[in-house]
Design a protein that fits this description.
single chain; 289 residues; Rossmann fold; four-stranded antiparallel sheet
Length: 289
């Protein structure tokens, strides 16, 4: 459905925000993850045809969208990281406005989408008065107006409280059936339970493209739990990678990334996706050294 071939975006002479990324996607939820500044948003903007690649191609069903952007725009829904609302419009009026822009004349579809994102009871309330989570849900509703085949969502849970984040993740998971959902985030827990694939970026480059299960499997045997006296903690931290540390009655409860037994009494632990990614990065750094 969507293929990226050596996609690069360069600003000025020396800055490559995206550097030679090649990827291919079908259906499902794809988590595009990486630190702030890794190039995720720039890549999303190129897929959404808001900016053109400096080099390479982005193909949708075989069509180069830099040359023919309308080939994807009719079938694309996009929620940018910074999504604003018009202060004088209610949620319903906001949706009607975007429906007119997208050529959607089905009033019943607007009502169904507001129900889907659980905003139908707030349809006549000014959108400017919504919480951050409600605005993000309204943003998803407008992105779905044209029943897109590809939904591009950039940092959707930034600034949301835990309840809103959970609701938003569940909604995106449901939308992943029969569509391609591209979700960029630097918060690994946002994609841990819903992504079918992960594309990991670092400094503009793609460093991995695989399933969460493959990443977790590779990290098994490299993540440990341990409890050590506080007096021993500083010395241990000097020679192993401590993922988490918590004081408990004069001792330190630790989660550690290490290729072998890190200390006496340590036990192998089932890694979370975030821990698995950190263990993988530490292993790569050790190999490079």
């Amino acid at each position: 459905m969507l293929e990226l071939r050596g996609v690069t975006k360069q600003f000025g002479k020396d800055v490559k925000a995206v550097d030679g990324v090649s990827l291919a996607f079908g259906q499902g939820v794809v988590g595009l993850i990486g630190h702030n500044g890794a190039g995720k948003s720039t890549l999303m903007q190129m897929i959404a045809t808001l900016t053109r690649p400096s080099a390479g191609q982005i193909l949708f069903d075989g069509v180069d969208i830099a040359r023919k952007p309308d080939a994807i725009r009719r079938r694309l829904g996009y929620l940018p990281q910074d999504f604003g609302v018009y202060p004088n419009l209610s949620a319903l009026e906001f949706m009607q406005y975007f429906a007119a822009l997208k050529g959607v004349r089905d009033g019943a579809r607007i009502r169904r989408l507001l129900e889907l994102v659980n905003l139908h009871d707030q349809a006549h309330r000014p959108a400017a008065s919504f919480s951050g989570g409600m605005k993000r849900r309204l943003g998803i509703a407008q992105a779905l107006l044209n029943d897109p085949d590809i939904l591009v969502v950039d940092e959707p849970t930034a600034g949301l409280d835990p309840e809103e984040r959970l609701r938003f993740r569940n909604l995106l998971s449901e939308l992943g059936y029969g569509k391609l959902v591209l979700l960029s985030t630097h918060i690994v827990s946002d994609v841990e339970s819903i992504a079918t694939e992960l594309a990991i970026m670092r400094s503009g480059r793609l460093v991995a493209h695989e399933t969460p299960e493959a990443i977790l499997q590779r990290a098994r045997g490299q993540v440990w739990s341990a409890s050590v006296p506080e007096a021993d903690y500083a010395a241990l931290r000097e020679r192993v990678h401590v993922l988490q540390a918590q004081r408990q009655g004069g001792r330190m409860a630790l989660r550690i990334a290490h290729p072998e037994l890190p200390c006496l009494g340590a036990r192998e632990a089932e890694p979370s996706l975030e821990e698995a990614l950190m263990a993988q990065r530490y292993a790569q750094q050790a190999e490079a050294a």
